[in-house]
Amino acid sequence: MIELVSPITFKWIMSILTALASTWALYDVVHLTRLVRNHAPTSDPLVRDKYFGYAMGIAIGLLGYAGILRYHDVL
Amino acid sequence: MAATGPASTAARVVSPFNPANAVTASRFLCLPPFVWAVDNGYHQWATLFMFICGILDKLDGAVAKLFDCRSAFGEVFDAITDGVCYGFGMIVLVAYGWAPVIPAVIVVGLGIVNSVFRFIYAKRAGKTVNYKSYAMERVVGFVAFMIGFATGPMETHFYYYYFLPIFVLSIVYDAKRMLIDPVPGAPG
Fold first, then answer.
1. How many CB pairs (< 8 A) connect A and B?
2. Residue B9 has pLDDT above 50, yes or no
3. CB-based contact (8 Å) between A75 and chain B?
4. Alpha helices (H) in chain B, listed in sequence order
């Protein structure tokens, strides 16, 4: 039994998949910006959950990108 | 145009044996080959099997929409399957030394605590319901990737340790919402 692809191809597949998933942070940036612009009330627990969830999504996306940069010895 | 009358307003009963739940259940089939790959040191195969498990997670929602078989049970079953598959995956990786012990144990432990809180929330709501959280949707997605980072391996220690604060914060926030905040739509 051998592995599926060469190590360098696998490295790039992992990087591209992580980058694609981390791009989800942009979606969260757009939605968070929209909430802030509309002065969505934080007294509403569902709106508060959106604020928090989008912020966490952005943090996770940034973490994803930072890891890719480290993986390629950029950071 | 929406139909009116008693037939349309009555709650639709969906069998638990439906295509969407079948897709969800099929995720468990990824676990034995995943263990086989880890046991034999096949990093790429292990990544592939966990990737398929993640794709099936995304697919079951689409199948539920396609066959119009969404149900409260399906949502809860999906959440339980997430916990079992990813929790089991992480334990296997720790056992084989592919993932750092401390962050992995904290993630699995807090995941179990979160599941207990979900159960308490369902009791507070008075019905079978899966607790929806924007933060947890993203966190669970990243946990699936963490398994991939360990099987890769790809910056395993970096991702595992730096993810911990985000994970702990999300769990604490959700605990407050599930245990303390009023249930949306509930009287009082």
1. 85
2. no
3. no
4. 6-9, 19-26, 31-39, 43-66, 72-95, 101-125, 134-151, 156-179
Chain B residues near residue A26 by CB distance under 8 angstroms = none
Averaged confidence pLDDT in chain B: 88
pTM equals 0.87
pLDDT grade, residue A43 (50/70/90)? confident
B107-144 burial, b if ≥16 CB within 10 A, otherwise e? bbebbeebbebbeebbeeeeeebbbebbbbebbbbbbb
Give the residue from B28, B110, B23, B113 showing the smallest Cα distance to B60: B23
Say if CB B85 and CB B35 are below 8 A apart: no
Show me where the domains of chain A are located: 19-71
The residues, any chain, with a CB within 8 Å of residue A46's CB and separated by 6 or more, are B184
Structure tokens at B16: 């638990």
Where does residue B89 rank: exposed (0-12), middle (13-18), buried (19+ CB within 10 A)?
Answer: buried
* Nearest residue in chain A measured CA to CA from B42: A3
Domains located in chain B, CATH noted: 18-179 (1.20.120)
- Give the number of other CB atoms < 10 A from CB of residue A11: 15
- Tokens 């890891």 — which residue? A67
Q: Going by C-beta distance under 8 Å and a sequence separation of 6 or more, which residues neighbour residue A70? A: B155, B158
Long-range CB contacts (within 8 A, 24+) of B9-13: none
Query: What's the whole-number mean pLDDT along residues B90-115?
Result: 95
Letter for the amino acid at B4? T
CB contact under 8 Å between A46 and B173, yes or no, is: no
